[in-house]
Amino acid sequence: MDKLAARCARKLAGALAMHELGVVIEIQKRVAEAAAENGIELRDVAAVVVEIGEASCVVPRYLQNCWPAATDGTEMAGAELKIELIKAEVRCNACGRVYEYLACGRRCPDCGAPECRMVRGQETNVKEILVR
Ligand SMILES: [Zn+2]
Known about the structure:
By secondary structure, the protein is α+β, with helices and mostly antiparallel strands. It has helices at residues 3-37, 60-71, and strands at 45-53, 80-86, 89-92, 98-100, 116-120, 124-131. The structure holds zinc ion. Zinc ion binds at residues 92, 94-95, 97, 108, 110-111, 113.
């Protein structure tokens, strides 16, 4: 890798990490809201289960890396982040078949058409909050 490419790669990694940090902060907000609604103290949160769609542009590894720093010094410090991946699924525009986009090579396994609409896999959901 030459110097320029190395610098660009570093910049890109930085930008991605910033994006994931934003996602972590959003997750913390949603957890805080859900905890308040359910009368849960944030310091009693043992783990947060988050669903990440494989087409959501969120990199689970970066999210996992951001989590300890983002929760450090907050009431949620020590809470674990558990990530569940959701497969990207699409519906074929030609025949209506729903299929796993990446596993099927980006083409409908029934009719071979590439045109489709995303039905699942772009979400970032807080699925569950586990309490100590
Ligand atoms: Zn089809």
